[in-house]
Amino acid sequence: MTRLLIVDDEALVRAGLKMILESDDELEVVAEAEDGADAARMVKEHRPDVVLMDIRMPRLDGLAATREVQALPDPPKIVVLTTFDLDDYVFRALQAGASGFLLKDTPPRELVQAIKVVAAGDAMLSPAVTRRLIGHFAADPLTDRRRAAKERIAKLTDREREVLVEVGRGLQNSDIGKALFMSEATVKAHVSRALVKLDATNRVQVAILAYEAGLLDG
Q1: Are residues 144 and 118 in the same domain?
Q2: Domain CATH for 184
Q3: pLDDT beyond 90 at 138
Q4: What CA–CA distances, in Å, run from 40 to 26, 104, 128, 144, 211?
Q5: For 62, which of 40, 55, 71, 144 could close a Cys bridge (C-beta 3.0–4.6 Å)?
Q6: pLDDT digits (tens, 9 = 90+) for 113-134
Q7: What range does the domain containing 203 cover?
Q8: Which residue in 113, 120, 210, 218 sits closest to 171, CA to CA?
Q9: What is the average per-residue pLDDT within 155-161?
Q10: 27-33 and 50-54 as β-strands: parallel, antiparallel, unpaired?
Q11: Cβ of 198: how many Cβ atoms within 10 Å?
């Protein structure tokens, strides 16, 4: 059973999400919070596996709340919720450690599946949506962020950098293995080492870094 916390300032949204999620026998909404200011406390009290975090809330937005939750020992996975698919808050929440994001109009079946993917330890890196978000807000070649990203990428081996590019394109380990002619276990090992070297917590942050470093331009 995957335990869920919903953080959203709209009661109707929370009720709708709970109804959709609990239609699946493997998902349970253990708590709800109406503002990001309550998120960390609720996480400590209820120990959810996944937090659905709204971005725009009156007292404490989802970005700040994501940072607070990520600072806790053994934090849950966080999926940010937004009405807008190109929202700077979402991008910064991903940088802060969120495992992915969902639009609030995501079809129920896709919502349930996405939560299961995140609960299983995989980041929601959709080539169709997340890459577009990352690409939209990626730094231009002259910014400090681009230079800093290139410095971090320099720590990687050539093979790790090749794997990083494929992660940035939204490929899962099995597909990366096929593209680079290596076993899935080897790909997983490269990804794990890259996460450590880049001080990243998940594949979404790695993909953001690939964009910022210019590895996926064009």
Answers
A1: no
A2: 1.10.10.10
A3: no
A4: 24, 22, 31, 32, 30
A5: 55
A6: 889 988 887 766 555 555 565 5
A7: 140-212
A8: 210
A9: 93
A10: unpaired
A11: 19
Q: What are phi and psi of 75, to 5 degrees?
A: -70, 155
Query: For residue 199, which phi and psi values (nearest 5 degrees)?
Result: 55, 45
Residue with tokens 């070649």: 141
Those residues whose C-beta lies under 8 Å from the C-beta of residue 50, and which sit 6 or more positions away, are 2, 3, 4, 5, 76, 77, 78, 79, 115, 118, 119
186 shares its domain with 160: yes
Total number of domains in the chain: 2
Domain co-membership, 98 together with 180: no
Angle between helices 39-46 and 62-70 (to 10 degrees): 40
Structure pTM?
0.68
Report d(CA 44, CA 135) in Å as an integer.
Answer: 34
82 forms beta bridges with 103
Query: Does residue 134 belong to any structural domain of this protein?
Result: no
Last residue of a domain, one of 80, 96, 124: 124
- What amino acid occupies position 164? L
